[in-house]
Design brief:
Elements (H helix, E strand, L loop, with lengths): L10 H5 L2 H50 L1 H28 L1
Length: about 100
């Protein structure tokens, strides 16, 4: 038990037992496990989205790159502009937090 200056001793500090500490540690472990699973799921979602976007880009390149290069170049410009806007928005959100 920690000593406090003066004659004041907190009543809660004197009542904490080993069972209380074990319960706190168990709850902390459970919270850590939940955070790990959530982070793992988020990483899986990011990889899935990246694969979908990459597949879409490859499809558009194959389909429009052969037939209509003008349309393909315009499509690539729009996609790059969209991704730039998303990146700026994400950066602004990260800066605020």
């Amino acid at each position: 038990m920690q000593k406090y200056p003066g004659s004041f001793t907190p009543s809660i500090a004197s009542k904490i037992t080993k069972k209380h500490l074990d319960k706190i540690l168990d709850l902390t472990k459970d919270d850590s496990d939940k955070n790990y699973k959530a982070n793992l799921w988020n990483m899986g979602m990011r990889i899935s989205i990246l694969m979908i976007v990459t597949g879409l880009f490859v499809f558009l390149t194959y389909y429009f790159g052969r037939t209509d290069k003008e349309l393909y170049l315009e499509l690539v410009k729009v996609i790059i502009a969209f991704l730039g806007g998303v990146g700026i928005g994400y950066g602004m959100k990260a800066k605020k937090t």
